[in-house]
Write a structure and sequence with these properties.
85 residues; mainly alpha; two-stranded antiparallel ribbon; 3 helices; 53% helix
């Protein structure tokens, strides 16, 4: 099955869409697509990798407001702690 996303479509979404989640997903798609090509994957594999990156970034769109994780900074070198808002 052909992906509904391709490079020109994703570039347009990233450039002209003002919604931060769409822009983040477009950036994830383009980064995965570019990396796949740098690693000499075929076009089909590059698109599949990019689509997976889009889907992972877009998963956050489907979370109810207030359910996202919040990170609280701790001392340098001790990592971050997950806290609920």
């Amino acid at each position: 099955m052909q992906s509904p996303l391709d490079l020109p479509t994703v570039q347009a979404l990233g450039e002209y869409c003002s919604h931060p989640s769409v822009r983040a997903s477009a950036n994830a798609w383009r980064a995965a697509y570019s990396l796949a090509h740098e690693l000499a994957f075929t076009e089909a594999v590059a698109v599949r990798q990019a689509d997976t990156a889009w889907n992972r970034a877009a998963e956050l769109w489907h979370q109810p407001l207030g359910s996202e994780l919040v990170y609280e900074l701790t001392e340098l070198g001790h990592g971050a702690v997950h806290v609920k808002p």
